[in-house]
Design brief:
Order of helices and strands: HHHEHEHHEHEHEHEHEEHEHH
Radius of gyration: 22 Å
CATH architecture: Alpha-Beta Barrel
Helix content: 40-55%
Number of helices: 13
Largest sheet: 5 strands, parallel
Number of strands: 9
Distance between the termini: 69 Å
CATH superfamily: Aldolase class I
Number of domains: 1
Shape: globular
CATH topology: TIM Barrel
Length: 405
């Protein structure tokens, strides 16, 4: 009898505890806006509670942009893979003389851009190492032969070239930028990007992911993002997760982005990108995120920023990337029918027809957007000049890409 009584008591206590947890979860999910403390809790929620968190994030996405998922059809232009930073997870960067080290010529840039134009691309994504001429005399010599004194000056010229000679719209990801360079690049690019990655200074410590990467100091990256906000530049940023940060660090990074967006209203997109192991990197033995950790991070990003575009790359969550739709994303990011993902070359982008099929199987409509999101098109097109002309010619009445997806 005593055993049965204790059993009934334990069952009762378990029911009370479960009910309390559900009540607490419901209260957190009902918060508008979601607090930092609640986000800490949700990003570490139990497997049993994950379904409710995903459902809340999905509902928030549907209130923001119902039934539609977007992507940008792009060409990937690795303008130079020379870089003065040495991140523990990067296969993109090279030193001069290393196999694969390369800086594109203007002819190469234009050749790729024109080929992408024929395939219906509307975005020219420029990725490059951070100020390599400060570390490598050879890069300074190469720039001098091309007629430029800095990598950013060369990037500006290549953005202008693509804008002038093709219908593609440039989107540069050049690393840290001064206020002056933000304003200069905004003249020839409707949007600019810089991944915040993390606000954790711990990753700058010896043997951590950013210990030999001075341009990854969070305060410097936050300054660039804030300066872009002061100038009203549509800006793409995000976090890289699984590189040694804690779940709470992920929340802190999202909160920092949210705070800047509340102040300036310029964050057009937040990318939640998961680290993937590669055999040639210092972090080659690092454990990858689980499916649940990725879904939690995406869902919390959506709940923290219900009115911001949330993106996660499908190629980094293959083969079952459509599960990300359940966590509240509304965008797949840039997908190229021509060029590989030079940052993650081992993870090819899905074929566009496959992406459409999987997206539609979840009940959504797939739409092609421009590198600048529809709600920011008017902000850029209000300016005069070639950029505004090209943008208006590329956008349909809703601000998406005029070409069919």
């Amino acid at each position: 009898m005593l055993t049965r009584k204790n059993s009934r008591t334990n069952e009762s206590n378990s029911f009370i505890e479960e009910s309390s947890l559900r009540t607490s979860l419901s209260a957190k999910l009902a918060e508008n806006p979601l607090s930092q403390t609640s986000a800490y809790s949700l990003i570490c929620c139990s497997d049993e509670a994950l379904g409710e968190v995903l459902a809340a994030a999905h509902a928030a996405k549907e209130r923001f942009k119902p039934r539609v998922i977007t992507y940008s059809r792009k060409v990937f232009l690795p303008l130079t893979n020379l870089c003065r930073d040495y991140c523990g997870y990067c296969t993109f960067r090279r030193d001069p003389g290393q196999p694969g080290a390369h800086t594109m010529t203007p002819d190469e840039v234009l050749q790729v851009a024109r080929a992408g134009e024929k395939l219906g691309c509307t975005e020219a994504l420029f990725s490059l190492g951070d100020k390599p001429e400060l570390a490598f005399p050879q890069m300074r010599d190469d720039l001098h032969r091309l007629g430029y004194s800095s990598t950013l000056q060369y990037l500006e010229a290549m953005c202008e070239l693509v804008l002038r000679e093709t219908t593609l719209l440039p989107h540069p990801n050049p690393g840290l930028l001064s206020a002056e360079w933000l304003k200069r690049l905004a003249v020839c690019s409707p949007s600019i990007g810089l991944m915040l990655e993390t606000t954790s200074n711990d990753l700058m410590s010896p043997s951590r992911a950013h210990d030999n990467a001075p341009d990854k100091l969070p305060s410097k990256r936050l300054k660039t993002i804030e300066d872009a906000g002061r100038f009203g530049i549509p800006f793409t940023t995000g976090l890289l997760i699984g590189i040694g940060e804690t779940p709470n660090d992920r929340v802190d990074t999202l909160i920092a982005i949210r705070n800047l967006h509340r102040r300036y209203g310029h964050i057009q997109e937040v990318i939640v990108q998961n680290f993937r192991v590669k055999p040639t990197i210092p972090m080659k033995s690092w454990p990858e995120l689980s499916r649940g950790e990725m879904l939690r991070a995406v869902a919390v990003a959506r709940l923290l920023m219900p009115d911001v575009n949330i993106q996660a790359p499908p190629n980094l969550s293959a083969p079952n990337y459509e599960e990300l739709l359940e966590a509240g994303i509304n965008d797949w990011g840039g997908i190229s029918p021509l060029t590989p993902d030079f940052i993650n070359p081992e993870a090819p982008w899905p074929h566009l027809e496959q992406l459409r099929s999987r997206t539609e199987s979840k009940g959504y409509i797939l739409k092609q957007r421009l590198p600048v999101y529809p709600e920011f098109v008017d902000r850029v097109s209000d300016h005069h000049g070639l950029l505004a002309q090209r943008l208006l010619a590329s956008a349909d009445e809703d601000g998406h890409a005029r070409r069919a997806a």
